[in-house]
Amino acid sequence: MQNNSIIRPRYFALQWHITERCNWHCRHCYQKEGSRDDELPLSGLFDIFKQYLRLIRHFGTLGPARSRLVIAGGEPLLREDFFAFLERIHKYNKYFMTVLLTNGSLIDAVCGRRLKRLGVETCQVSLEGLEGNNDAVRGEGAFNKTTRAIEILVKSGIKVVVCLTLTKNNVPDIMPLIRLCGKLGVSQVGLRRLVPLGRADAIKGLLLQPFALRKVYLRLEKEIRKPGNKKKRPALVGGCDESIFCQEINRPLINCGVTEGRMLTLLPDGKVIPCRRLPLEVGDATRDDLLNIYYGSARMEQLRNLDNCFAACRECGFFDSCLSGARCISYSYFGRFSSPDPQCWKMFKVLPPPDFLKNKKDIISKTKKVHFTLLPRLFRQFDKKV
Fold it and tell me: What is the pTM assigned to this prediction?
């Protein structure tokens, strides 16, 4: 067994979609509709939770500063046993930070206090601009429901992160929304790029052109650097799709978490994929352990292997900082995981046609699987504590 020679991530996040049921039907959603039949029972959730603890122990990332458990949906609060699950896991919060992704529609004062008591440190909600643009995407009345949830969560002592998915329509709303979030007590505002997957494939035409996207990020960078602004507004953060801007932004940017090997995603039935926006099945946590899946999946190794990136990307002088951009956007746009980022203005002046690489095949370098056959012996002592 070669685990001592394996590179471990310095930070790790497990994004766990405990349900795909949702009470909203957002136009840009990249997920499919789900039902109770797709969901593991509470006992099954806790079995996989123990796998997560073993995984972050192996990585050496135990602690809220280095590991996150991101509970997501659908709308996770639709699960009738949602709080029962939190009750089971919150006593292990010293090992990770608990983050909840919610649309906010089911948040009331009692819920806010309960989330705080059970160790939820951060809640992420989405606003797609001001009321008009937001409700055009997320449904009538969604803006008021979400802003009300933000107020409740902030009052409960929970940090709130607001995410906006960039489209051609909501660019004018960015700065007014940031100011509004400051008034509401939001801790961070993050911009994310549209991923044309699922229902969002129907609005692929709202993707920003490469140089229009560049203009947005440079405007955001200018705002970040204004003297004294940090005290007046939420922190402005990018996501794992921002690394294509490394040429012109002189601060550390976030690379794709799949490429860097610092994340996994669990679906309600226990299936494992690299990222919820990159729906390539790499394992099943009801049949195998997350540790074996992380190291033993050939597809995971292919995605982490930089030799599999697009040839023109590898020849770019900024490749070491960019790592070929966002895999999820490349895959959903071109249908190939080794394709370039379609919104990279260093490569494309305008968005290329989706069939631009139709006759190309994914580059797949040979990889060596590592299976942890001694898994029970390795973690028996840790399991006793859980």
Answer: 0.92
